[in-house]
Every structure is written in C-alpha cells, then in structure tokens.
Amino acid sequence: MQSCPEYRPGLPEVNDNVSHDHPLKEFVILLSGIIAFLLLAVWSLGLFVDWAAGFISPQMEAVIFSSMQVSGAAIFKQQEDDPRRVELQRLVDELGRCHDVGYPLQVNMAQSQQANAFAFPGGRIIVLEGLLKKVHSENGLVFVLAHEMAHFKNRDHLQGMGRGLVMTALSALLTGAGSDITKLIAPALGVGQAQYSQDRETLADRLALESLHCLYGHVGGASEFFEAMQEEDGEQGGGLGRYFSSHPAAVQRINALHQLAERSGFVVKETASLSTILAPSASHE
C-alpha cells in the first residue's frame, strides 16, 4: 500500500499575478500611457474640429453667433456711434481689397485699457481702445487689423474655440472636472494646444505682412505693436512660460517679421501718422 504525499501549503516561487516592479515605476508607466492616449485623442479630435470648421460658412457662422452679445460685460461695452469705429471700419474695408477673407467684417470698439484686438465669431473684429495708445502710425494699426482678418480667413477663431471645448470636455469626461489627475495632466495637454495656437499666430502675422505691403507698397510699421509690447512686458514670454503661452513672444514675432520681409523683398519706408480721429489725444476717455 502506497502512502499519499503529505500536503504542505505555501506560496509559489514565481507568481505571475504579482508585479515585481517598483510601485513608482508602475505609476510612471501608467501616467505616461494616460498622457500619451490623451495627447493622441486631443490631436485627433483637433484635426476633426479643423475639418468641421471648414463646413461652417460665414453666413451660417453669423446666424449661429448672432445672439451672442459682446456688450454686457463692462470692458466690452460697445460704442456703435464712436467715430473711431467708423474710421477703423474704413481701414478694414480697404484691407479687404487686398485680401478677400470671405467674411462681411464689422469692427467694434470696446472700452478697455488693454492694448489688444481679437476676432470674434460672426465676423466681428473687437478693438480694445488701449490699442490706440500703443501704435503710433496708421501702418502699425493696419497690421494689427490685418492680423485679425487673417484669423477669419484661416478660420482660427472657430478652430481655437472648438479645440478648447474638446479639450475641456475630454478632460472632464475621463477624469472628472477638477480631479487631481486632471490637474496633473493638464500642463502636458496645454503645451500641445499652446504650440498649435502659436503656429496659427505666426501664419496670421505672415498674411498681415503681405496685406500691409499690398496696401502701402512697403511694410513699415509691421512690428510697431510688438515693439511696444516688448518694451512694456520686458522679459515676459521667456523661460518655460513660452511653452504654455498661446502667443509667441514679442521678440520672436519681431524677428520673424523682419526675416520674412527680407526673404520676400519687402522694403521698409516711412509710415503714415494716425488720423486725428484715432490719435490718443482725440480718444474718448
């Protein structure tokens, strides 16, 4: 009679169900995978948004955004009867003869000390009155207007809005708004979006330079606004901050414009003064 082998319980020498890697290494691998997946998702959806924006006609866009009012907030109080708005509209109409952006554009003034302008969906260019204190020539102002017109031509305003919505929705859907994971991966996603925005700004600068040359026969005043902002902001835009900024640093834009003008054979001549209507001394405070 044979005896049964004695049962001796114990752990196997090798357990494939248990990881032998350091927990920190596993966390890094997992986090890298999540970031890679989200970057791919944002990139793919961004391309889809760019494609879809091409199917929104200027007329359809005007209807969609007609109910959105720029006024209401204190800094965006419109000034329909402001003579400066009429003069700005004249400049935009003249630029339209150099480059047809495909939009019936309307200029609005907004009360703000910030020096800026932006393309608002529906074919509206919003000029913050602080801009008139930073440019000293008509050429410098026209370059800024031409830059905003280029955003309409390239559909940057729709694509930027769509990409922002996609990124916010995707982040909230996968990780929950305000979660710790969202806060951890947001900078990585922000770098990709910032680089995309900077590329679009560079394209708009290039078209604005061509428009300026078309209207005046030279590109004097093209970098005037950026030089004013560089003087005001100093070293802003340097360091790691430039990777998260939606706009290239002023010094980069100035250098890029000078190089493009040289390659294109554009000359620089004396600029024209701002009209008395647009000069800061005539501004409505």
UniProtKB/TrEMBL annotation:
> Is Protein transport among the key words of this record?
no
Report domain Peptidase M48 positions. 87-259
The UniProt keywords, alphabetically, are: Hydrolase, Membrane, Metal-binding, Metalloprotease, Protease, Transmembrane, Transmembrane helix, Zinc
CDD domains associated with the record: M48C_Oma1_like
Membrane-crossing ranges are 27-49
- GO terms for cellular component: membrane
Q: Which GO terms describe its biological process?
A: proteolysis involved in protein catabolic process
Q: Which domain of life is it from?
A: Bacteria
The similarity annotation says:
Belongs to the peptidase M48 family.
Q: What is this protein called?
A: M48 family metallopeptidase
